[in-house]
Amino acid sequence: MKRPLLLMLLIALLGGGCATPVSGPPRTISETLAAGDQAGRHAIQAYLVVDAAGMRLVDGLSLIANPPQPLTPPEQQIWLETTLPAEIEAGLYHAGPLRYLAVVAVEQLEGPGAFGPSNTYRYRMRNPQLSMLPTRETSIVNLLAQPEVYRAGMVRITGNILLHDDAAILVEELGPGGVPTAASREIKLIGATRDTALRRFLQSTAGGSISFGLVQVEGIWHDNALIIFSVLPVG
Questions:
Q1: Element (H, E) at 149
Q2: Are 118 and 54 in contact, with CB atoms under 8 Å apart?
Q3: Is 36 exposed, middle or buried (0-12, 13-18, 19+ CB in 10 A)?
Q4: Do strands 78-81 and 123-126 pair parallel, antiparallel, or not at all (unpaired)?
Q5: pLDDT, tens digit, for every residue of 48-62?
Q6: How far apart, in whole angstroms, are the C-alpha atoms of residue 204 and residue 170?
């Protein structure tokens, strides 16, 4: 099976010419920590967050919380000690008191330990190589029709979310009461339920167990599911 162009370019960029090779293809923080082997240099796909406390990598943000905040606790974030390249600094988006950007960070991952302010963070990278992670606008139709084209890349999609206590999907079209139409296609969302502020902006089914509404999602396409980094209500 051919590797998607984006993945090939990332591996070439991140691994080429390095004295110590990168440990596998780019992965999210949760995937990296779940693998258990911290040896070697890692390529991590994440949101870079910059605020008054400093810089860190996170697996997602609640952009609708007040103030916006990471979707994972500090022990699942990576503290950064570095100076940002000019192109990264210029590309940061503003969200309340913080700034953020989708990036790939490459360097040795230190930890578990105690890093950052008050030794809050368990993991650290010092002077990582940082590059922007391009975000591609697409649709559910295109994602399902060409999954290999988008694999391991950051995508942005508008669709209708159906949110249960521990599961979520994104569908093309909803009928009355939040029921997907017969021809509506869908994709699985991983991590969407972490944003507890989201339900306030959605409608609920008659029984109240499912929330639904039109949203814009950003995430990494992996194993035929979208690993959610952020969700914004539309309209």
A1: helix 147-150
A2: no
A3: exposed
A4: parallel
A5: 999 999 999 999 999
A6: 15
Contacts of 123 (CB under 8 A, 6+ apart): 33, 77, 78, 79, 109, 110, 111, 112, 113, 115
Residue 118 tokens, joined: 């008050």
- Residue 164 β-bridge partners: none
Cα of first residue to Cα of last residue in the chain, in angstroms, is 40
Give the pTM. 0.88
d(CA 86, CA 67): 26
Judged by phi (left if over 0) then psi (alpha if -120 to 50, else beta), residue 40 lies in: left
The answer on pLDDT for 150 being more than 50 is yes
Side-chain-side CA neighbours of residue 202 (13 Å): 28
134 three-class SS? coil
Give the residue among 154, 151, 75, 150 at the shortest CA–CA distance from 115.
Answer: 75
CB 169 within 8 A of CB 188: yes
Residue 15 buriedness (CB in 10 A; 0-12 / 13-18 / 19+): middle
DSSP 92: P
Please state, in angstroms and rounded to a whole number, the distance separating the CA atoms of residues 58 and 76. 8
SS3 assignment for 98-110: EEEEEEEEEEECE
Give the pLDDT confidence score for residue 9 in this predicted structure: 46
Q: How many residues does the chain have?
A: 235
In whole angstroms, give the CA distance from residue 123 to residue 113. 6
Q: What pLDDT sits at residue 177? A: 86
